[in-house]
Amino acid sequence: MESTLLEHEAALRVSAFLLVLAAMAAWEHAAPARTPETER
């Protein structure tokens, strides 16, 4: 198991980063920190 994790460390790190980034983007889209002042 440990050797498998070490073999795919780079892919796991990138996947974890993208997962957290997507989760934070979805959270910000659902509940923005501030309301927009102008219409798009």
Notes on the structure:
The protein has 40 residues and is mostly helical. The protein has one domain (1-30). Helices cover 70% and strands 0% of the residues. It has helices at 2-7, 9-30. The longest helix is centred in the middle third of the chain and has 22 residues, at 9-30. The chain is rod-shaped.
Characterize this entry briefly.
The protein has 40 residues and is an all-alpha fold. Helices cover 70% and strands 0% of the residues. The longest helix is centred in the middle third of the chain and has 22 residues, at 9-30.
Q: What is the helix tally? A: 2
- Mind describing the biggest β-sheet? none
Please compute the radius of gyration using only Cα atoms.
17 Å
Structural class by SSE content: mainly alpha
- Count of discrete domains: 1
